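PROTEIN ENTRY
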Amino acid sequence: MLDFAKEAKAYVPHVVLTVVDKGTDPAVIEESRRIAQSLGVKLRVRAYIDS
């Protein structure tokens, strides 16, 4: 997935990775931010919505 995101940014103007915050350790979310930043893409932290 990370390789795909890195390659996609050459063809897609706005690449966004997402993580759902339900039960996710804040350290994992922060690591996800660092990874997204290192790839040059955005990260969106999404709230879990139980449907």
Observations:
- Helices lie at 2-8, 26-39.
- The longest helix spans residues 26-39.
- Strands lie at 16-20, 42-46.
